[in-house]
């Protein structure tokens, strides 16, 4: 038998590679972890959607505020408050009680100081506001709409 230079190579066989490891989890604990993470993610998405729908009245009030005049600010605040609180707690408020309610809901003294303390006077009388006062009023009303919290 005559050996050729490639004869030794012809008798070699391929090296057997083991099968790659599976990426499928092998224990029940991983499935439980995936289920908990998936349910937590669904709960988080659901609560974000619920919050978005719950604050829809705020977005609509801010959109209306952009075109409202200072005479309409008090009515806009009243309608916004009626969306969040029961009618019997909000509808009858006027004057200083209304201003105290607004300040208590936002946790700051916005409406009991000038020029915001004149918000009802502007709504019911022919009182006008200067450009600077109107800007302060508009900013205060927008802040109240964004930041008020309903206390039980």
Task: Explain this structure.
- The protein is mainly α.
- It has a domain at 56-147.
- The protein has eight helices and no strands.
- The radius of gyration is 34 Å and the shape is rod-shaped.
- The mean pLDDT is 85.
Number of helical regions: 8
What structural class should be given to the helix and strand makeup?
mainly alpha
For the termini, the CA-CA separation is 102 Å
Largest sheet, in brief, is: none
Question: How helical, in percent, are the residues?
Answer: 55-70%
Succession of helices and strands? HHHHHHHH
Radius of gyration: 34 Å
The gross shape turns out to be rod-shaped
| Number of strand segments | 0
As residue ranges, the low-confidence spans are none
pLDDT averaged over residues: 85
Tell me what portion of residues adopts beta-strand conformation: under 5%
